[in-house]
Amino acid sequence: MTPVWLCWALWALPLTGPGAALSGERILGGLLRQLHLSQVPVLDEGDVEALVTPAHVTAQYVALLRRSHEAHSRGKRFSQRFREVAGRWLATEASTHLLVFGMERRLPPNSELLRAVLRLFQEPVPRAALRRLERLSPHSARARVTIEWLQVRDDGPNRTSLVDSRLVSLHESGWKAFDVTEAVTFWQQLSRPRQPLLLQVSVQREHLGPPASGAHRLVRFASQGPTGAGQGEPRLELHTLDLGTYGAQGDCDPEVPVTQAARCCRQEVYIDLRGMKWAENWVLEPPGFLAYECVGTCQQPPRPLPFEWPLLGPRQCVPSETTSLPMIVTVKEGGRPRPRVVSLPNMRVQKCSCSWDGMPVPRKLEP
Q: 297 has which bridge partners?
């Protein structure tokens, strides 16, 4: 029979080993296991060029993103800074609109971004247009609004990354909220200094196919035309955490170099998936993500200990809470490429703690 202490030790093992920084190989291994593959599928650019992501796949991915953001900001809502940035419509082509936000000095130094919310004011649809739509398509009075981050690149074509998508009703008007935390994170990590945040707003049919209605053409947001400037203009809400005041959250001070003598803390690490060769044409979303890693040292108890514990080693700084990473990947089904959502567990470190080889730490020994 397995001893009780060993059962407890195995149950309490950390989600990632001490010092085990997230690598491309680990992400690749997790992705292969999720898809039950032994090697990276062979996909060329032609396989994904004409690939259209279905609405249900987009909705599933966005729902997982939102869940991840909620887990990240949970428990921090009472210690946030709040800033609002006004945006403007830069260009419009058919049902795709470009939105720009000047971001210089908008994010305070030594702060952590908890959430970014885009608010657009949906204008009411004229009653005559609604009656005409109801006669032609009585059950199609909704449209899908999709938000993507636009990355302007000097070394190739511009790229977009999906950040949020939701259905809007033509019978309603008013402010609509979209979670664009991923977009601001991408902008922080990948944009050039002083480059504005560019968001691409697309309004599409709720359902694709020949019988689909033209309801999406009736969706209009305030300030899209020159006459609407200043009235219900797009807003970007930035919710941040002051790390100088709320250092107990466990993040390293970005202005202080981490040394071996530093106390256990969570350090920001950005993983660029588009820079990994194996991810080309396979990983469609996201282009990258903030993973974080646990660094620094832990206070050690005096020796000898007042009790005996088998397999006891030095206390180490390890992840104690993690969240999953949602992804959209290309898979081949019946010889045809299709988008699919997967969720890789334990990819984002939420909290770092000190532990004895995976054992929970008594509160009195916490540094």
A: 263
